[in-house]
Amino acid sequence: MTCHDARQGRVSKVQVGVITIFPEILDAVAEFGTIRRAIESGSLGLESLDIRDYASDRRRTVDDRPYGGGPGMVLLPGPLASCIDAAKQRVDGPVIYLTPQGERFNHAIARELAELSGMILVCGRYEGIDQRIVETRIDREISIGDYVVSGGEFPAMVLLDAVVRLLPGVLGNEESALQDSFSNGMLDCPHYTRPESFEGLNVPQVLLSGNHQEIQRWREQQAFDWTRNRRPDLIESSSRLESENETDLNTVDNHQ
Ligand code: 9D3
């Protein structure tokens, strides 16, 4: 089954190959939630490749000590190269290496990747991969943020989840992705559900008023206040985006 994008009138399925020494991690996330639904509905093809399957020795060695000394191990170029080349036979798209040295992942990059027909995600472990693989086979390097995790597997899943949510038809409610924080450059507003009073704390009166215009205004104000207080950097970049868009519109107008 394929997935039809009503807005653009195209059929879209993104094919993702994940290269790792822990394919079981990937296989586990494929069983749950958004990623599982995306696979079941045919929006996502997910295949994990085990680097160890491409090792050439009997012990299936995938790493070795770094030239020049130092702590830790480096993924051998041979098995990794064969594994990436095998993935390229099946998946069309850029080879993305998850690494702390990469460009910082964000929603704009997720949107960009959601337009692709596919991608190959390379997960490092140990100290990293041999630089000659970066030079010969890696198209893009992405980090998920300035903190250290033990390998590229969780970062790859974070990236995948962010991308898959943007594929047409994956979220039940087509609006949800549009309403997410960061799509509009703002944080979310506070949420409440029953009961009206919990441990002496009441739901804001406006939400009980039934006045949808007032509710909308309140939510926007709360979102703005949260964003201004917690993430002023988002407001700065969204006003920059808006003025860029105005410039774009002016440019279009000038050409017509
Ligand atoms: C402690 C090892 N560090 C030596 C200075 C370097 C290092 C190597 C490998 C640190 C982390 C890792 C494993 N992390 C990733 O592969 C990774 C990652 C991350 O740690 N943070 C944010 N994004 C990413 S994407 C891949």
Highlighted features:
single chain; 256 residues; alpha/beta; Alpha/beta knot; Trp Operon Repressor, Chain A; elongated; disordered C terminus; binds ligand 9D3
Structure description:
By secondary structure, the chain is α/β, with parallel strands linked by helices. The protein has two domains: 163 residues, SPOUT methyltransferase, trefoil knot domain (Alpha/beta knot, 3-Layer(aba) Sandwich), CATH 3.40.1280.10; 76 residues, Orthogonal Bundle (Trp Operon Repressor, Chain A). A five-stranded parallel β-sheet has the order 4-3-8-7-10, sandwiched between helices. Helix 3 runs parallel beside helix 5, helix 4 crosses helix 6 and helix 8 crosses helix 9. Ligand 9D3 binds next to strand 7. The site of ligand 9D3 has 16 residues, from strand 7.
CATH architecture of the largest domain: 3-Layer(aba) Sandwich
Q: Enumerate the distinct ligands.
A: ligand 9D3
Count of helical regions: 9
- Give the low-confidence spans: 247-256
The percent range for strand residues is 15-25%
The name of the CATH superfamily of the largest domain reads: SPOUT methyltransferase, trefoil knot domain
Spatial arrangement of strands, main beta sheet? 4-3-8-7-10
Total strands: the figure is: 12
Compute the average pLDDT.
91
First and last CA, distance = 42 Å
Overall outline: elongated
Q: Work out the helicity level.
A: 40-55%
**Helix and strand string, N-terminal first?**
EEEHHEEEHEHEEHEHHEEHH
Radius of gyration: 22 Å
Question: Which class of the largest domain in CATH terms?
Answer: Alpha Beta
- The CATH topology of the largest domain corresponds to Alpha/beta knot
Structural class: alpha/beta
Give the domain tally: 2
Biggest sheet statistics: 5 strands, parallel
